[in-house]
Specification:
The chain is mainly β.
Length: about 250
């Protein structure tokens, strides 16, 4: 056997050992291999499944499907890791997203029960179109509980002497992103939704809060923002509304 061929065989054997070692390490650490393409997307739209912790209820799945093809979808079925059916995403309950220069998008939302026998792994959505075509999307889910935000400042029931310049709360373990919702307590309508922020405080815009006003606010916390495994996010929480007033 020639010297060059011997060197090639030695290099191949060494490389194979590295690959096997890396694979064993992934299995030992329970690391899920990343898919080559984002499995949440198909030509029909985007699928995601969130594990949600909201006030006064048990953990639940929020199943989300966003699509421009909403007029052409017949049904959306959701399946467990083991392939058994979990439920359907209702197509009569949705939010509408309109952006200048883009067609209208519908985001279908459905709450589904999380039972004790649910497992971590790839959940899937089977989308059946009205013309009979079918598409399958997947989302990796790790069952867990993200705690709800606490330490709200202003605190519940406080009457402030002047409008606050900042709202803050305690950091939520495992949360890298937050959204703040502020509602006018007199008119019972949401007047502000923040962009996604990465620290537990919000600089209040200009004249949003006024003397004599009465407001409620709450925090949505989430672990990630856009992930090839977890979609938009995996774990999320929403705390109960905190009320405060501002003196005239």
């Amino acid at each position: 056997m020639g010297t060059f061929r011997k060197k090639c065989l030695v290099l191949f054997a060494f490389t194979s050992m590295l690959v096997i070692s890396a694979a064993n390490t992934c299995m030992a650490d329970n690391i899920v291999p990343l898919p080559s393409e984002d499995p949440h997307y198909t030509q029909a739209g985007f699928f995601d499944l969130h594990v949600c912790n909201w006030p006064d209820r048990e953990l639940f799945f929020l199943a989300v499907y966003s699509t421009y093809q909403y007029k052409d979808i017949a049904k959306i079925e959701i399946f467990h890791v083991d392939g058994k059916k979990l439920g359907n995403i209702k197509t009569n309950k949705y939010r509408i997203i309109k952006k200048k220069g883009s067609p209208e998008k519908h985001v279908f939302l459905t709450h589904l029960v999380i039972s004790d026998n649910h497992k971590n792994g790839w959940y899937s959505a089977l989308i059946t179109m009205k013309d009979g075509k079918k598409y399958r999307s997947k989302d990796y889910v790790v069952i867990g509980r993200m705690e709800r935000a606490t330490g709200m400042d202003p605190a519940d029931g406080v009457i402030l002497s002047k409008p606050p310049k900042k709202l803050s709360w305690n950091d939520v373990k495992g949360a890298d992103h937050y959204i703040v919702y502020i509602k006018d307590g007199w008119e019972k309508k949401t007047i502000f939704t923040s962009r996604l922020i990465d620290k537990p405080e919000l600089s209040v815009p200009g004249k949003l809060l006024e003397p004599g006003g009465y407001y409620t606010w709450r925090i949505h916390a989430r672990d990630v923002n856009g992930d090839v495994l977890f979609g938009d996010f995996n774990l999320g929480s929403l705390n109960a509304a905190t009320e405060f007033g501002i003196a005239d």
